[in-house]
Amino acid sequence: MKYRSRLGAPDIVKSVILWLGSVCFLSLLLTQCRGQSLPSQATYDVAKVEIDASKQAAYKIPRTIFGTFLEPIGNSTYGGLWADVLENPSLEEGLWSAAELKKVLDREPQLVRASELGLPIPWEPLFYEQQNRYAPQWTDTFNSFRSLQIMGLPETEVGIRQKVYLPVHRIPGYSGSLYAKLLSGSRALHVSIRQRNHPEVTLAKSSITLNSTDWTRYEFHLGLPPVGLKKLEPSDFVISVEGDTTILVDQISLLPDDNVDGMDLDMISMSRAMKSPIVRFGGNFTSAYHWRDGIGPREKRVSMTNVAWGIPEYNTFGTDEFLHFCELIGARPQVALNLGTGTPEEAAGWVRYIDDRWGTKSGGLTWELGNELWGKFQVGYPGLQRVAERTRTFSDAVRRVDPTAVLIATGGDADSYRDWNSEQLQNASAFNYLSTHFVVTTTAVQKAAPSPDFIALANFALPVGLQAKLREMYGQIQSHPQSRDKVKIAFTEWLFWAQGDTVVRYDTMGGAVAAAGFLNMLMRNADIVPISDMTGIIFFGGIQKERSKVFGTPAYWAFRMFANAPATTVVETHVASAEYSVEEGSTRLPRIERVPYLDVVAALDDSKETLTLFCVNRHLTRDVSAEFSISGFHPLSESSAQTLFAPSISMKNDETDPEGIRPVDVSVTLNKDTVRALLRPASVTVVTLRRAR
C-alpha cells in the first residue's frame, strides 16, 4: 500500500500519547453501536478535537450546498420516480441504442423471439406457440410512430404481455388506460394481471367494450386479491382478445392507485425527507433535449431515444411534472439549458415557460448554460474556440426574458480546468457562477495491482485534494478583473462511481463515507462554492427502486443526516488525529498529503443554541475514541447522536433488505464542556448539542 500513516505535529503526538493512558475508562462511558460490544483497547485510535464556538466563519453555510440532481438515466425517472410500471407504452421500435438493447436482451433473452413475431421490446406474446398474430402499423397510430395490430383466433385467446413488478407490499389496486381501435369482430377486449409465464392463472381482470372504430381512450381498474401476488414477485400485464376480433392498440398505461399525479408515493416521501433545497434537471441528456417534447397532453407526447444514454425517453415526465415534483418535495428547480442542439430562442422560451408557472411567477431562478460542453461525448459540443461566444449568446437571450435570472456557465472539472475556464472568464459578465463536476471512477488508480484498502483510502482522500483544487480554481477566477468578487463556483455534479459494487461506490457503505467527507469539504468551502448538486436524488447516490421496492443507498442516509441538521455557521475546529498520505492514487488526483483519519466539521445554527458535529472516520479497521473539548458553547447534558455504520464498506441496501444500513441512535458522554464518543471504522456520525441556559 502506497500511503503512509502518521500523527500530527510533535506536541500533538505527546498529548495524544499521554491521553492514551486514560483511554481504558472510556469503556465505562461509551455505548454500543448496532448491538456490537466495544472493541478492545488495542483496536482504538485516539483523537482530540478542539472546538471554539466563539470563532465563527464570516460566511453562512447556504442550504444550496445540499442540492441534488435528476436526469433521465437508468431508472431515475422511468422505472423510478415515474410510477407507471410499463415500458415502451406506445409500442415503438428503435428506442434503445445497440449497446443498451444488448443489455436488455441479455437479461431477457426470450425477447429475441418476441421481436421476430413483430412485437416491440419488451412486449411478448401471450402464447408463443400461436406465433404470428401481430403486426406493427406505421400509418394508423394514436401516438408517436407505431401502433400494434392484434389478430384473434377462433375459440382461443390472443394477446400481448409484459413482465412487471407491482408494489403489492404497498397497494393492491392499479388503474390504467389504453387507446384502441376496433377493426373487426367482437367488441370485447380484456386486460389482466397473470402469474408470470402462467397465462392460465389470472390474478385480476377487467373487460372493456370497444364502442368505436376510431381511436378511443378506455380506462380500466385491476384489484389484486390479498394473497394473489408476493412482494418482489414478477407478474404479467396482459391485453387480449378472443375469437375473430382484430384491433389496433396504442399508448398503454398502468399506475398504482396511490400514485401522486403519476409519481411514485415512496419516491416523493423519501425525496422530501432529504430536505434538498434545489433539484438540478440536466446532465448529458440536456444537450439533445427539446423541452417542448415534454409538455402538453401526456398521451400525445412522442416517445424517442434519449441520445445521451441510449434509452427510451417517453416524455411523460416533462417540465410540468418536474416542477410539480419540486413543489411536492419543497425544492426549487435548477435547469440546465440545451447548448448542444438547442438555440438561444428555444432556451429563452423554456425560461419564460417555467417563470410563468413557478412560485410567484417573478423569475430569478437558477439556470445552467449547458452541461460539460468541454466533452466530445456531449451532443453538439462547441469546442474551446466557440464556448465563450455560445455562452454569451444564450446568456443574452435568457436575460432578455428574465433580467433577474441567475446563470451558471460550464466550467472545467476541478483537476483539468485552467484553459477552459480562462476562455470562459474572458466573458465573465455573462454569468454568475462557473460550474465544476467530479464524477470519479473509484477503481481508476495509478498504482499497479492496488488492494481494496488502498482504493478505498485513496477515494476517501479525494475531498481533501479537491479542496485544494477548488481554492486554486477560485484564485484563477479572482485573477480576472471581470470576475473578481463577482463569480463563484457551482459544483453541479459529484459522484463516486465504479463498475463493480465491492469497492467504494455510490451505493455502498464506502460511498456513504466518501459522500460525507465531500459534504464536510463543501461546508468548509461554502464561501466560494455556495451551490452543489449530489448525483442524484434518485438513482446513483440517492433513492433507488428495484422490483417495485423503493429504498435509500447508504449515501442517501448520510446526505439526509447532514442536510437535516440545523447548521448554518462553521466554527473553528482543530483535530489531532492520525493521518495518511496517498501516492499513485486516483488518476484524477493521484497525490494527496496529510489526510486525517478523523474529519470533523462543527457548526452552529442561526440561533446559536445548537452545535452540530459532523464526524467522518476514514479508518477502515480502527475505532476512533474522540474527545471534543468545546469552548464558547456550554452544552446541556442531554444530547443526541446518530451513526451510519456497516461491518463492511462493500455492503449496501437493496430491495430485499432496504434498510439494512441506516442511521441508528447512539450515546455520547458529556462531562462539563467535554464530549466523548466512539466512532466506528468507516462510519459517519452526527452529534447534536444544545446550549445550556
Describe this structure in words.
The protein has 693 residues and is α+β, with helices and mostly antiparallel strands. It has three domains: 3-60 and 572-691, Golgi alpha-mannosidase II (Immunoglobulin-like, Sandwich), CATH 2.60.40; 63-80 and 261-565, TIM Barrel (Alpha-Beta Barrel), CATH 3.20.20; 98-256, Sandwich (Jelly Rolls). The chain contains 13 helices and 35 strands. It has a ten-stranded mixed sheet with strand order 32-31-35-29-28-25-2-30-34-33, with helices on one face. An eight-stranded parallel barrel has the order 3-14-17-18-19-20-21-22, surrounded by four helices. A five-stranded antiparallel sheet has the order 4-7-12-9-10. A hairpin with a 2-residue loop joins strand 23 and strand 24. Residues 1-42 have low confidence and may be disordered.
Keywords for this structure?
35 strands; globular; 693 residues; eight-stranded parallel beta barrel; alpha+beta; 3 domains; ten-stranded mixed sheet; Jelly Rolls; TIM Barrel; disordered N terminus; Immunoglobulin-like
